[in-house]
Amino acid sequence: MKYRPEIDGLRALAVMPVLLYHAGFSWISGGYLGVDVFFVISGYLITSILIGEISTGNFSIARFYERRARRILPALLVVILATLAFAPQVMWKWQLEELAMSALATLGFIANHFFLGVVDYFRTDSETYPLLHMWSLAVEEQYYVVMPLLLLGLWRWRPSLTLCCWIVGGLTLASLAAAAYQADRAVESAFYLLPYRAYELGFGSLAALFVARHGRLAEERSARLGPACLLIILLTYVSVPADVVLPWAKIPLLAATAVLMMSTMPAGITMRVLSSRPLRWIGLISFSLYLWHQPVFAFARLHFGHIDTNQAVALIAGSMLLAALTYRLVEQPARRCKVTQPKALMLSVLSIAATGATCMVMLSVTPAADVRSPQDASLARSVKDHTESIWTQYREIEGRAFTTDKEHVLLVGDSYSQDFWLMAKAIGAFQDAELSAHFIHYRCQPYIGTRDVSRHLSQADRQFCADRASLAPPSDILRDADTIILAAAWRPWSAGMIAEIVQDYQVHGADVIVIGRKRLRERIPLHFRAYLDVAIDERKDKIVQVEDIHFKQSEQIEAHLAGLPFVNFFKEACDVEAFTCPIFDQNGFILTFDGTHLTPEGAAYFAPKIFASPHLRRFAPTLQTSEASGL
Questions:
Q1: How far is residue 567 from each of residues 180, 300, 487, 490, 609, measured CA to CA in Å?
Q2: Is the overall model pTM greater than 0.70, yes or no?
């Protein structure tokens, strides 16, 4: 295929928005859609190559995949190995294990399926996954498995470009419809999986088939359409929200990219922009730049906890330097290397196997910080381990029926109610009561009234929380409860109607106690590894500056309740004047594993403070005994 400099320029306009978005620049909220532009470009190029070779009888599966191996594997394996080598400096053992598994998934080109079950791309902590971006490479490679077989099969059945256009067009529309259907039902699947992404590559494939049949657009038409297409792409990057965009809304972006790929660029503004030396240079290194940027940004965030503007600019420059070196020293030599096709394929297999073996070794690596002391081991413990432990303990009381004559206490809420139970266990509370729990996800909030609150929820949450009746505790449990404790990560809308929420529970005849939300991290969270530099005996003095909005929300809830029982976490456990909270106990153990939820040491530390509230004191007789004895 003849070299087209404007395609490298378009690659630059795809990769740079992704970098800027991942660097945290809010003005380019739709920068992640650069990946969609890449998909169109890839679909066009790969289909052009395939249809050109298949239609002339010159297609070879082995040669096709040898070219793909030369193009992808050398840079990919270098980045994976470098990432694995550096990771122990900034990661805990559980993170190394996740990284090794994600690297193995990347080598098998199934990273999209791996991350589907691990992380939400738009969640803040996704920024610390060094190989998260490999999901898109997996989607492309999966498409490259399907497309050659599809076109080869169609051509052998009936050698007709028209037939290929109809079949590929139909499959593209089917994928688009499926993606639109899934967009508000299974957002993560719609984001990560090929069946719901194929339409984006399909736009490129259809453009290639159009060119194969009719030729590229005439220069006059290209000159008229080019600037408009460029404007659509750039406006999309800065106008769409930093969230999952519905597939229909992507059509202008995808169509504009496809039109540029079909165009015959005259010496006009579009050609001058796209073929400019800076954009062409970035386009040439775009593959390596895409590979390098996520590990670089992730490691920086793991080390610093947050990156500011100056750091972001430096990291982008560092990524570009690494990409330029990789392009010069790895990509180009690999493409020019004169080895036979069988040998090239064999080297590819052996290289993948060797990298996979390195991943397996990484699974056994334990960073020194993880085992240096019990306090450091507490810092290192994974969110997953903590969450599993919390759920195990919570299930002791979840859904339990009331069967005794003791006071019946119903605990209702989300993960904050689980923390409340951990605190209760830590000091032996509720020994003279019978406790049952009912879990309601924080996305829905413990609202059981009849009013339509869907306007307060995101589109995905509306679907998730659609059946309000099924979210509520069973009527017999509500009826039998003497006291109901509501503990949740209250949102602004639920905090504003807290009095109504309480009334909906009071009508069942129970007293209601509301527990306010908690926060144990700063607005810009610090990665826990930073505390390794603090001596253990000095950690007890560390505090976190919490945003005052969280303190004020608890004050607003208290005002709305107008004297009804309310436990303000911040008043009981923090400094409400300075907006600070403790982060370590007296022995140097971390109190929270994510800035929101409690470690076992955190539950033991805060329990006496929270249960000292007059509304909860009667449930903790051991606390009263300790106070009476002067301990």
A1: 44, 39, 10, 13, 11
A2: yes
